[in-house]
Amino acid sequence: MKGLTPSHHRTIKTQNTRMTRADLADRLHRPPSPIVALDCPLAAAQGVGLWVKRDDLLFAPAAPALCGNKWRKLKHNLLEAQAQGLEHLLTFGGAYSNHIAAVAAAGHWLGWHSTGIIRGEPHHPLNPTLQRATEQGMALHYLDRTQYRAKAIPPALAAVLAAQAPHYLIPEGGSNALALKGCEELAHEIQDQCRAAPPTHLLLACGTGGTMAGLVAGTPAHTQVLGVPVLKGGFMADAVADFLAASYPGRSFPHWLILDGYHRGGYAKSDEALRQFIQHTHAQHGIPTEPVYTGKLFMACHQLLEQHYFPPGSRVLLLHTGGIR
Ligand SMILES: *Cc1c(COP(=O)(O)O)cnc(C)c1O
């Protein structure tokens, strides 16, 4: 199994000069990502305005996979890890996960250790996500699907992890309370940028629902937050409600809704119509999207417009969560 020996990590550690919290906060500081108007005849004919919040443009040049909502979700976790003196990130994810890519990029960028526990059998050769993660110093371990689901770490792996401890643990997909905090900041950033005319609808793609929960918590009730799950299974409303209940006990949030039925067959399932839509979006608006998350989001928005979902006068803001690097 790859990456079982911690020796390589130990060398990086000794070369690493410790950053102060202010240094790290400074490196994690970014100006607001732009909001751009979309010129869309279908929307205009209905009196609906369409904008995109370009969080795909939010990234560290030296760590392009640390981008979009992965940036928002990791920011406060990185600050917390450093505050606890834990410059070793440990996390879980699928073999193609943007979250794994983002954590590996963050570790490399900051000179920290990173370890990824990957769902499924070892990949030979490594897929591009895992290849890149390895090049960035992430140690990879694999758990078969049953063990992964049960979070049942075999004794040999547990011993390896214990020998490298302590780590800063980030859950699968990165959705914890500090991730939600970063997404609340995103909501506040949007409010600041749209003071004169706040959006009536905020539309985003959902994987775990963590980004949506943070966004709902930070968005005033005059804006409705609409989540488009990219997985099938109909569990997203419960997932978002659970995140909200866990992070904001006692508060109630009436202004959100999950729109199921736009996943196009399930997670990472793609089809010709989606591929064409993505090409069209790029050609028409100069905005890159990808088939797993944002392509499905933009296509869902188009279908909603075809159904006259948004009342005349609506101002619809699409959140581009990144995923293209
Ligand atoms: C991970 C990811 C999402 C899903 O975010 P959740 O907080 O898990 O719902 C959406 N878009 C992109 C581009 C992502 O990489």
Throw out a few tags for this protein.
325 residues, 13 helices
Care to give the gist of this entry?
The chain is of the alpha/beta class and 325 residues long.
Describe the structure in your own words.
- With 325 residues, the protein is an alpha/beta fold.
- Helices cover 42% and strands 18% of the residues.
- The chain has helices at residues 7-15, 21-27, 41-44, 68-83, 98-110, 128-135, 145-150, 155-164, 177-193, 210-218, 236-247, 272-285, 294-306, and strands spanning 35-37, 49-54, 59-60, 63-67, 88-93, 113-119, 138-143, 168-170, 201-206, 224-229, 256-258, 315-320.
- Strands 1-2-12-9-10-11 form a 6-stranded mixed beta sheet, sandwiched between helices.
- Helix 5 (98-110) packs parallel to helix 6 (128-135), helix 9 (177-193) packs across helix 10 (210-218) and helix 10 (210-218) packs across helix 11.
- The chain is globular and about 60 Å long.
- The protein starts with 6 loop residues before the first helix and ends in a 5-residue tail after the last strand.
- Mean pLDDT is 93; it is low at 1-15.
- The protein binds pyridoxal-5'-phosphate.
- Pyridoxal-5'-phosphate is lined by residues 68-70, 98-99, 173, 175, 205-212, 293-294, 321-323.
Could you give the topology of this structure?
Layout: H1 7-15, H2 21-27, E1 35-37, H3 41-44, E2 49-54, E3 59-60, E4 63-67, H4 68-83, E5 88-93, H5 98-110, E6 113-119, H6 128-135, E7 138-143, H7 145-150, H8 155-164, E8 168-170, H9 177-193, E9 201-206, H10 210-218, E10 224-229, H11 236-247, E11 256-258, H12 272-285, H13 294-306, E12 315-320
Parallel strand pairs: 2-12, 5-6, 5-8, 6-7, 9-10, 9-12, 10-11
Antiparallel strand pairs: 1-2, 3-4
Bound molecules: pyridoxal-5'-phosphate (PLP).
